[in-house]
Structures are given as C-alpha cells and as structure tokens.
Amino acid sequence: MTGPRLDEEPAGHRRFARYLQHLETVAAEDESDLVAAVLRDDG
Questions:
Q1: Contact at 8 Å (CB) between 40 and 32?
Q2: Which of 3, 30, 33, 38 has the greatest number of C-beta atoms within 10 Å?
C-alpha cells in the first residue's frame, strides 16, 4: 500500500508537512519566528 499522491493532499496538509521539514532544519535562533508563523498559519 502506498500513501496518497502529494497533489491529492489538502493544501493544509501540504503546508503542515512543509512546516515540519522547516522545523527540522531551522537554526535555533530562528525557531521561535518559524513557530510563530506556523501558529499564524502564514503558509
């Protein structure tokens, strides 16, 4: 069984996936800004 194709995912799911990717690589000093953007859902 395979997962859904990316283009079939709702936009909110794709944004959340991008947020997770960014959180893995963001510099510590920029993390709070990214978290604030996620909470505002500034996609």
A1: no
A2: 38
What Rg value do the Cα atoms of the chain yield, rounded? 12
3-42 pLDDT tens trace: 666 568 899 899 999 999 999 999 999 999 999 988 998 6
Torsion of CA 36, 22, 11, 9, to 10 degrees: -140
Long-range contacts of 36-41, Cβ-Cβ distance < 8 Å, separation of 24 or more: 41/15
- pLDDT, residue 29, reads 97
- ∠ CA 34-37-43, nearest 5°, is 110
